[in-house]
Design a protein that fits this description.
- The complex is a heterodimer of chains A (312) and B (465).
- Chain A has 312 residues and is an all-alpha fold.
- In chain A, 73% of the residues lie in helices and 0% in strands.
- Chain A has a single domain, classed as Orthogonal Bundle (MetI-like fold), CATH 1.10.3720.10.
- In chain A, helix 3 packs across helix 4.
- Chain A starts with 5 loop residues before the first helix and ends with a helix.
- In chain B, helix 2 packs antiparallel against helix 15 and helix 11 packs across helix 17.
- The chains are: A mainly alpha (312), B alpha/beta (465).
- At the A-B interface, helix 2 and helix 4 of A face helix 1, helix 3, helix 4 and helix 17 of B.
């Protein structure tokens, strides 16, 4: 194989040779600064102000007041802590179930089955629908008056108000929709991982008398480590930040808010507050960020340890 | 060294270009008129002619909220406005009522809209102002918009004179200036009554709470539903109970002040009795399955004819007519009290108001648009189409809902949601006036005392904060 001369890309000028790689990084770095780092830093600064988010409105520095209100003031702090705990519960359940279901689907659809392409497409389709479409579909599906799910429940002598009823069941239905909407991605990542596994390993193991469970435990699971780690982190971070489905499916319903929805509601005048409070929303989003950071850090440490153990 | 400098210079140029691109020097994305006559802001008669724009194309960006009868009227109005003003195109966006706050906040800040229908919850003009007895509360959204100089001062515009003085003062004024036109009032504390169904089962229209409870029992015994509601949208549940609130506390300003000063407590006396009535309304009177119905869907469901009552705002009158129900209906104050004298008040609110963005690139066209909306003939057409209670002295209520509501207007009062602002730090249950939406099957409470105690505790947490 011919080795590419670096001058082929950057010309023969030594100046270009030295600086061209840096120059090529410039657009990416600027995009990152403009759409990721910049807004993140601005959010941090905003969290110490009474900003409304309106152009031309005065912005005053109020120190830690937003954090004080969020964490310690009156009964609203209790509601905020509840929302934080609810966010954690949502994340744990979604991560665990979506991960497991995605793995099972991938294992099934990695077999030489008739119609597997169709089923792969079927399970992935929800991913490409927008959140609003996903939400509206499920709102219709979960109509308590003669909706399809109500009819299924009726068959078993059950009844539910689904999304419009008690906060607990309504919250659980959002978990179901969140998993349905995203399990396709988890499945595809696992499928991609499975297809990189050398089939000779399975063949050799079968000759040695390994059964299905042995093949999975000793070959598939360790060899899937990169896919497992990716899915684990994506599921955790994605579920901690989820809020759109709560807006579409439940709106402002006491007892169901998660932190992401609370940030949106406070910042854009959607909650009980009749005001635009982007400073307070920024403080709430920093709390959410810290939560993601701590959990993400621990999860990352775990997956690194796991990768080291299985992949060397 | 020179190379390093050129590298940094290049980086700076790229950064400046990116910032310039993001900043956008354009005052709005519309095509603006260049030269030509400014549209006249006065109008005469139904054929409103704003004078055109001198031949150059102008796009007027209008933002309104979804309400079938209202949006249908606006589409027809826009067509007439465009026909009367060659070169003017109205680009109207329609969003769900719940999304109005976000749309107004973002589009005004981006200077991406010229005329807005200010219908931010509770969609009640410039009400819910901070009262002298309220301390440490946030400014309402409309005040934030005005103080950010995002709304145009219309004090001296002649079309403002078309509206009655009290409306201009109470619904669209702040600090001595007028910022919009309020298109009408709506009753909240009433309910639609299916007179045909009541007659079929031999019932009179209930005049007291006890009669209503008895009527519901009779109806259900006959296999009919007592009430339906848009429970899936949550807010219709408590809006439907505003009549109960009004019947128990006819002086709602006193209720607001009493809650703030501690003279009235949610978990004592009349307030506790009110919350018990909320429970009966939510758990016993509403038909099963309303948790899945949206606001407009509930009206469609009601139009089917086998439900006796629909407690909601009078704005649904025009929509109900649109479904062409095969029964006679009327609209009455919710009979929430055992004393029929307390059930005579019609609680309501100033509904949507049109405002103009301060930085609109075509202020003359925007003013002409509001002038045309204010024109007496156009306004009458608006009232006829939507059933809003007029805020122009000359307009009349000729619709079905108008006929029902007109005799009650002498007893019209502002509803509680226009007055109340919760203290900062109050918990989620402090707004117990929404309590009907927190009973099963909609939320976790099953008895009035528990909800009342939670509400009072959450309120006091804010008051003492």
């Amino acid at each position: 194989m011919a080795i590419m001369n670096k001058n082929y890309l950057f010309g023969s000028s030594s100046k270009w040779t030295r600086y061209a790689p840096v120059m090529l990084l410039v657009p990416g770095v600027f995009l990152y600064i403009m759409i990721a780092l910049g807004p993140s830093l601005a959010t941090t600064v905003y969290s110490f102000t009474d900003a409304s988010g309106l152009r031309g409105a005065p912005v005053n520095w109020i120190g830690l007041d937003n954090y004080d209100e969020f964490l310690f003031q009156g009964a609203v702090s209790r509601d905020n802590i509840d929302a934080t705990l609810r966010t954690l519960r949502f994340s744990v359940l979604v991560t665990f179930i979506q991960f497991t279901l995605g793995l099972i689907l991938a294992l099934l659809l990695n077999q030489k089955l008739r119609g597997r392409t169709f089923f792969r497409t079927l399970f992935f389709i929800p991913v490409i629908l927008g959140v609003v479409i996903q939400g509206l579909m499920w709102k219709l599906f979960l109509q308590p008056r003669g909706g399809p799910m109500a009819s299924i429940f009726e068959t078993f002598g059950l009844q539910s108000e689904f999304l419009g009823g008690l906060p607990g069941p309504a919250f659980n239905w959002v978990i179901v929709v969140q998993i349905w909407a995203n399990v396709g991605v988890t499945m595809v990542i696992f499928l991609a991982g499975m297809q990189t596994i050398n089939t000779d390993l399975y063949e050799a193991a079968r000759i040695d008398g390994a059964g299905g469970w042995e093949l999975f435990r000793s070959i598939t699971w360790p060899q899937l480590t990169p896919a497992i780690n990716t899915n684990f982190l994506l599921n955790i971070v994605g579920s901690l930040q989820a809020w759109q489905l709560f807006l579409v499916l439940l709106g402002y319903k006491p007892g169901t808010q998660v932190l992401g929805y609370l940030v949106f509601a406070e910042g854009f005048g959607q909650g009980d507050s009749p005001s635009f409070r982007q400073g307070f929303a920024a403080a709430a989003s920093i709390v959410l960020f810290l939560l993601v950071l701590v959990i993400g850090f621990v999860a990352n440490k775990y997956v690194n340890w796991r990768e080291e153990r299985y992949m060397g | 060294m020179t190379s390093k400098r050129s590298l940094w210079m290049t980086l700076l140029v790229v950064f400046a270009l990116v910032v310039a691109a993001c900043g956008g020097g354009d005052d709005g994305a519309t095509e603006t008129t260049a030269g030509g006559d400014s549209p006249a802001t006065t109008s005469g008669g139904g054929d409103t002619d704003t004078g055109g724009s001198g031949g150059d194309d102008v796009t007027l960006r209008v933002l309104i909220h979804q309400n079938p009868a209202f949006t249908e009227y606006m589409e027809a109005f826009n067509a007439d406005f465009e026909a009367a003003n060659p070169g003017v195109t109205v680009d109207m966006s329609i969003v769900a009522p719940g999304d109005m706050a976000t749309s107004i906040q973002t589009r005004l800040s981006a200077n991406d809209v010229d005329v807005i229908d200010y219908c931010v919850a509770p969609c009640a003009g410039f009400s819910n102002a901070i009262q002298p007895y309220m301390t440490g509360v946030d400014k309402p959204a409309w005040q934030q918009l005005i103080e950010a100089n995002l709304i145009m001062d219309l004090t001296d515009e002649p079309f403002i004179q078309n509206f009655d003085e009290a409306t201009v003062r109470d619904a669209v004024s702040f600090d001595g200036k007028v910022y919009g036109i309020n298109m009408g009032r709506n009753a909240l504390g009433g309910m639609f009554v299916n007179q045909t169904l009541l007659a079929d089962v031999g019932l009179d229209i209930p005049a007291t709470w006890n009669e209503l409870v008895a009527a519901c029992e009779t109806l259900e015994g006959e296999g009919f539903a007592c009430m339906t509601q848009g429970g899936g949208d949550t807010w219709p549940i408590f809006v439907g109970s505003f009549g109960l609130l009004g019947a128990e506390f006819p002086d709602q300003e006193a209720l607001s002040e009493g809650l703030w000063t501690g003279e009235i407590k949610w978990n004592e006396g009349e307030a506790l009795a009110l919350i018990e009535k909320f429970r009966v309304y939510a758990t016993e009177m509403l038909e099963p399955g309303v948790t899945g119905l949206g606001h407009d869907e509930a009206t469609a469901r009601y139009a089917a004819g086998d439900v006796a009552f629909l407690p909601t705002g009078s704005w649904q009158g025009a929509n109900l007519d649109g479904f062409e129900p095969e029964f006679d209906w009327t609209y009455i104050p919710f009979p929430g009290s055992d004393d029929s004298a307390d059930n005579q008040y019609l609680f309501g609110k100033y509904d949507l108001s049109f405002l103009i963005a301060e930085d609109t690139p075509q202020p003359d066209v925007a003013k002409a648009y509001l002038a045309a909306l204010s024109d007496a003939d156009n306004y009458q057409a608006f009232v006829d189409a939507t059933g809003f209670i007029p805020t122009q002295p000359a307009a009349t209520l000729d619709s079905t809902i108008g006929e029902a509501v007109s005799p009650l207007l002498d007893n019209y009062r502002n509803a509680f949601e226009q007055i109340w602002v919760a203290p900062t730090g109050a918990g989620q249950w402090a707004n117990a006036w929404q309590g009907a939406a927190w009973f099963a099957p909609f939320n976790e409470f099953e008895d009035a005392q528990s909800l009342a105690d939670a509400a009072q505790a959450d309120l006091e947490a804010g008051l003492s904060g």
